[in-house]
Structures are given as C-alpha cells and as structure tokens.
Amino acid sequence: MNELPENQTVSRQINEAVQGRIITKVCNATKLHKNTFWFGDPLTYEKLLTGKRIVSSESFGMYVDILMEEGTKISFGDGTNLRHGVITQKMPANYQLLLTLDNNTYLVFTVGMFGAIAAYNGIYDDPYYQKSANSISPLSDDFNNAYFDSLFTQNKPALPVKLFLAAEQRIPGLGNGVLQDILFNAGIHPKRQLNTLTDTEKSVLFQSIKRTLKTMTSLGGRDTETDLFGNKGGYKTILSRKTSGDLCPQCGSRIVKEAFMGGGAVYYCPDCQKIQP
Fold first, then answer.
1. What kind of architecture, by CATH, is found in domain 149-268?
2. What pTM does this model have?
3. What local confidence, expressed as pLDDT, does residue 263 receive?
C-alpha cells in the first residue's frame, strides 16, 4: 500500500504529467468494490468533473489531492492506486474511476483491499482525511524533537513502538510499510514498549523517522510499491515482503517475519533489534 513517500511521488508526477490538462470524459466503475469509500454519489462525478482543467496536485500523509478549476478536487488514498497512460484500443478493463484527458491520455483509479475516492467542491469532511491534512508532516521542519516528544506523552507507557508509530495515524503517512526500515535503522524491535526506550533511543528513533522517510521520498518510494506510471520505487527496502528470510545486511542473521496483534506483519533482525533493552 502506498504511504507517505509514494504519495509524495505520485503527487509530483501528476504535476509533471497532467498539469493543465482538461478532463474530457468520466467513466464510472466497471467493477464494484464493496470497500471503496466514495464521498457523495459517484454517479454525479461525471457532471462535476467533465471539462475541468487540472491545476495542480499536493499530498499530505496518506492522501493525494488533485486540484482543478472552480475549487473542484479529487482526493484519494488509503489503498487507492492511480495510473496514467495513453489511450489505446486496449484500455484497463477493471477500475473504480477512469478519466480521459485532452491529450489522448487517461487517469485510472483502482482500489486494492480498501480505498477512498472523493470528488467534490468545498470540504471533504472525512475524519481520516482531515487528520492527515491538519497534522504536521514528518518531512516538515516543524516535525522536530519537541513535537515528537509530545506524541510520547499522549500515549500509554506500555504501548508497543509499532502501534505508537503506525496506528491511528499519529504520524499521517507513516504506516506498517515504511515502519519496518525506520525501526531497523533505529535498532529498535517493533514489540518494544515505549516505557523501555531510553532518551537516547527516542532521539535515534526520531532521527530515523526523518532520514528514512526523506530518503524513501527522494528515491521515488519503495521498491515494494509503484508510482503513477506503474514503475517500482527506487528505494530498496531492507525489511519487507521482498526480503523476508534473507540475511540481515548488517549482521548476517536471518530476517524474521511475524504476525502482530492483527495489525499486519512485522519484519526485524533478531540480533540488530533486540526485544529486551
């Protein structure tokens, strides 16, 4: 699933590839998906979007916005993928939304396990979107040590580090995917409790969040995910489904995969990331 680095990449690519283009046709879903979360009635999107010029795109947290004329927007995230392609006789067959543009190209939205797609004027009042939009990005200078410390004080001392970082969108855009390398680079086991972290470890974790996400973003996202054109990101993951069972590049131990409290798998090196402090 795309997270902050991939969403930043897709937003940048939208600005490069389709800025100034006009939507010529809106095609509604060819495949119903019960876990597509629409805003309003998607059957009204044709009237709302047809003829609109794409002005720009921006991204924050788990969401990407496409901004158009007259205050119209498309917001998508949480498992929704966007692809850009050239119109040919062989077009995508299954999708939740497809937009053709005035330069013989298209944008197609597809949803995996679940995803949000919203076309609207005004305010998108979804609470997850609002939280992403109004939180401080870890890529921002405002995401500093003082802000990070304040997040610690708002949570139970026995909370596992994985849940602290990736649950409830405390840090929007930081999910279970990017979490793995952040914790590896910090040398912290995902099951460690907050109250076991020393001040030094908290500082190292803060620096790892900043550096790891910045690197992932600068390289166009992770190699486990794809961009606007279907290309994999340039950041090679250390811990992910691609490296499960491989040897740790730091110490040579075998990388472990485990289920974690119904919240997705965790990957870690048992020697570089000790469960006991």
1. Orthogonal Bundle (1.10)
2. 0.94
3. 61
